[in-house]
Amino acid sequence: MGTKIKAKFVGNCKLCGESWAVGDDIFYQKMPKAICSDKECFEQNQGGKISTYSQATFKGNNDVIITKIPEVNVSDSVKQIADMWMEFFVTAHHMTKSIYPVQDVNTHVFGQIRSRILYQLCSITALQKQ
Ligand SMILES: [Zn+2]
To answer: Which one-letter DSSP state was computed for residue 4?
Structure first.
């Protein structure tokens, strides 16, 4: 199943010649590979299929969220925790990939599973330290 995503790289379609810039909406499918900014080309020339579920998910993700970052100094101990968090994140990412090999990495579902595993890894670490 393909999804509508924001392009992370500049590119162009080898079939119809359409080009896109970073941030443009493009249609992307991993298996079988299909990519184009033109929906018709994506579906008809390349056999891509748009998952309606992902479309809805991505639409939701585009809602504007205002975040106010508090102005505080971050201590070294917190930075160390952040480094550890990143190690857990990478581990959770690879675990999700190996446990759900068919799940597309660029989907909301993958991200949800990954953050659940990340949370579990942190919980297990906390238990071990007791
Ligand atoms: Zn095309």
So the answer is: E
What's the gap in Å between 16 CA and the centre of ligand 1?
A: 4
- CA-CA-CA-CA torsion sign (7, 9, 10, 14): negative
Among the listed residues 116, 119, 111, the one whose alpha carbon sits nearest the alpha carbon of residue 85:
119
Q: Which residues surround ligand 1, an ion (CB under 5 A)?
A: 13, 15-16, 18, 36, 38, 41
What are the sequence ranges of the domains in the chain? 3-61, 76-128
Read off the pLDDT band of 62 (50, 70, 90).
Answer: low
Q: How far is the CA of 53 from the centre of ligand 1 (A)?
A: 23
Residue 61 neighbours by CB under 8 Å, 6+ apart? 108
Q: How far is the CA of 18 from the centre of ligand 1 (A)?
A: 6
pLDDT one-digit tens code per residue, 80-107? 999 999 999 999 999 999 999 999 999 9
Ligand 1 centre and the CA of 72: distance in Å? 48
Measured distance CA(95)–CA(101) in Å, rounded? 10
